[in-house]
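Model the whole thing, not chain by chain.
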Amino acid sequence: MNIPPGWSWLGQFLLYVAAGLLVIWLLVTGYRALARFLGGRPGLVRPLAIAGGVLAVVGALLPWVTFPLNDGPYPDLATLQFFDAPFAVTGFRLFTLITGVAAIALSFVPRIPVRRVLRALGLGLAGVALVNTIFPLIDGGGFGAITAADGAFAFGGIVTLVASLVLFFVSKAGDLEPLPRWNTKVPRLVAYAALLVSFLVLLFAVARLLNSGSDSGGGSTTYSGPIFLSLLVFFAGLFGALHAIGFAGWLSAVSDDHKLFSVLVLLLAALALPFTEAGTDYWMTIAANIGVYAATAIGLNIVVGLAGLLDLGYVAFLGIGAFVAANLSGAAAAEFHIHLPFVVAALVSATVAGVFGAIVGSPTLRVRGDYLAIVTLAFGEIFKKAAQNNIGGLTGGANAIPGVPPISWFGASFDESFTIGGVQLPSGVLYYVLIIVLVSVVMLVFANLKNSRIGRAWIAIREDEDAARAMGIKTGQAKILAFLIGATLAGLAGSVFAHKTSTVAYDSFQFPESVTLLAAVILGGMGTIPGAVIGASLLLILPEKLRDFSDYRLLLFGLALVLIMRFRPQGIVPDRHRRAELAGEAEGGVPIEELNVPDSPQGATR
Amino acid sequence: MSAPATKAPVLVANEVSMVFGGLTALSNVSLQLGEGQILGLIGPNGAGKTTFFNCLTGLYTPTTGSVQLRGRVLPHDPASVTVAGVARTFQNIRLFPSMTSLENVLVGRHARMSQGPLASLFHGPAYRRGEADARTRALELLEFVGLAKVHDELARNLPYGDQRRLEIARALATDPSVLLLDEPTAGMNPQETEATRQLIFAIRETGVAVVVIEHDTKFIFSLCDHVSVLVQGQLLVEGAPEVVRDDPRVIEAYLGKPPDEVEAEVRQYTEEAGPDTQVKDTGGNQ
C-alpha cells in the first residue's frame, strides 16, 4: 500500500491520537477499577498510608532525574551528590520526606479525617514529583536524562509519583469522612491570636514563595520555575490538609465573625511585605503591577461578577485612565503641558474613564449576552487603534508617552528607596504602599456596593433580567451604573499605572490584557474580592517564575484555566452563595449550572 | 352575568389587544378588578392568559387598548408598573436562584427603598436605617408566607412549593395594590394547593387585590369572587364563579363538546376523509 507523500503525517497523527486515547482509557479504567476495589475495604487505610509514606521517604532519598547545565546540575543535591551527602535533604526532597513522614504519622492519629488529609497531601506530592521529573525531561533533552550521571537509574521521581498515587488512593478506601466543623464560638482573644498567627504565617509563606529559586535580587534564575512550582504545590497540599481537618473553614468563619480585625491584620501583613525577604526592588515592582491589575480586576468584577455583563474590552478603561494621567503629569511628550498634583490627576482620570464606561455601557440597554461581549470587544479595539494612531495627539501613538515623572509628595519621590528605623527599604516601596491603599479603597467600594440596594439589583439582573425588571429595578440605569463604576475604578488604577511605569504606550492595553483581567476574575472566583486579587497575583507571578517556559506560557495558562473550570468552576475563592451551594454537595462533580456564564445568548431584545 | 365589580375598581383593562405579526393573541379584552377582589383568569392552553398578564405588567406594549391603575394609565415598562403598584409572579418560577430567600425578598423592596449609589457607597446612618427597615419588612413577609426559617437558604435549594411561595413574598415586597399570580399552584399537591388558597385569602385580607391565572378550575371556583374566561384571545364569559362554572360555552371550551357530539363529529370526519386517504395510499404504492 502506498501512502501518498504529504499524507503520512495524517497517519502518524491518527496513530498518536489513538495511542493517546488508549492511554487515557487505560488510566480511567484502571482508576475506576482500583477505586471500586478499594471502596469496600476501609481497613486498607492505614496499610496504604504507611506504604505511601514509606515510598515517599524512599523517593526522597533516591537519585532523581538529572542533567548537566551550564549553571550546574539540576536539581541541587538531587543527583549523585546524594551519595556524597546522604543526609542533605533540602528543597523538594525535603517536601517529599515531610509528606512521607506525615502520612505515616497521621495514619495513627485518631479522630481526624485521614482520607481527606492524605488525599490533599498525596495530590501535593504528585505535583512535586511531576514538576521535578517533567521539568528536567523537557529541559534536559528527553528521556535520556532519566539516567543519572554514573549510569545509575534516577527513579526517585517515579517512586515518589507512585507514593503520591498510593496516598491519593487512601481516600478511596471506604467512604470519605465528612468535613469536620469546629466550634466557631471562641473567646475573642483566641480568635485574634489565631488570625494574627495565621496571617503572619501567610505573609512569610508568600515571601518565601516569591523568593523561592530567586537570585539575591529576587530575579528569576534558570531553576526558579520548578523550585517555585514545587514549593507552590507543596503549600497547596499543606493547605488542602489544613482544609481537610477543618481548620481552614474554621478560620474563615472566625475571620467572618471578626471582620474588622481580620481586615486590619491583613492590611498590616500586606504593608509588612517590604520588610520580609521579598522586599526587593524586583518584587516591589511586580507587586505594584499586581496591585494595578487587582484593582482593575475588582472593577471588572462589578461588571462581570455582579451584574453579569461580559466585557471583553475592559482594559481600555485602564488605558484611558493611564493616558489621561500621563497627559496631566507634565511629561514633555504630553499634549497638555500642565502638571496637576497626582491626587487631582487621578480623580480626573477616574472621571474620564467613568464617562467612557457609561458610553460603552449604553449599548447594554439594547443588546445582551454574546452580543454585548462583541460590542465591548469592538470598543477595546477602537481604543487600541485610536491610541495607536495618536488620536488628537493624546496618546503618542507608537512613540508612546515617555517620561511620566514619578509621583512626588512632600519632596519624597516615589521611585526612590529610603530607610525606616535603620531598615533599608527597596525602591518602589512607596508605590507599593500607595497601591495597597488603592486596592483597599477599591475593595471597600466593591464590598459596600455589593451589600447594598444597588448591588442586589446588579445580582438580580445577572440572575434574571426580566424578573429584575418586574421587581421595579430600572435595569438600564443599573447596568450603565455598573459600567460606570467599574470603569472609574479602572481609570483610578490607570493613573497610578502611568506614574509607576513612567511610559504609557498603547500596547499595554490590548486584547490579551483584557482576557488576562477576565481570567483573573474567573480564576479567582466571580463576585468576590480575594478571588480577583489571587487571580491577578497568580497571573502576574507565574510568568515571572516560569520565564523558561515563556514559549508555553499561554498553553499552560489555557490548560490551567480548563482544569480549573472543570474541577472548580466556582473559582479559587468562591462567592459565599456558591460556597453554600457546594457545601452540601458531594466532592468532585459540580452541576453544570454552577458555571456562571454571564448570560444566555438571548440576542438583541427590546 | 353579574356586574364585574361592585366595589370601586383598582385595575381596569380597556379593550386590550395584542398582535404578534399576523397572530392576534388578544383581541379587545377588558377587565375590572375591584378593591379587595380575587379575580380568576382561566382558559385553555394558548388562550392568551399570560400574554394578557404581560400586557398588564408592561412587559408587552398592547397593540391597542390601555391599562389603568386607580384611574391612571400604566406605562409600558415593567419597572414603572411595579413602582406604580402592580406586582406579579411568573408561570415558570423566576426567582434569583443563587440569592438567599431573604435577598430575593430584599430585591423586591428595591423600588420602595431610596438609597442611591453614593449612599450605597458610604453606608451612612440613614442608609443603615433604611437597610434595617427593609430587612425587617422582608423577614415579616417571609414569616407571612411561612418561609422565615429558610431565610438564609439559597432560592434554588428550596423545594418547589416553597419557591412558589417565595415568589409571592418577593412580589408582595414591592407593596403592590394589585398582585398578579400566574399559575401559583402549578405542580402542587392538594395540601400545598390548599395552603396557597389560604395564603391568597390572607393576602386579600391585607388589602391587596389579586388576579390569578390557573388551570385548576376547582381551585379557581373555590377561591375567586369573579372569574373571566379567555378563549383564543377573546373574553368568552365573565361573572361569578357559579355562573361561569355552569356556562355551557365554558364547559365546551374547557372539556370540549359532550362525548356523543364529539363521537358524531369524528364519525362524520372519518367518513368524509376515509375514502380520500385510501385513494392516496394506493396511489403512493404504485
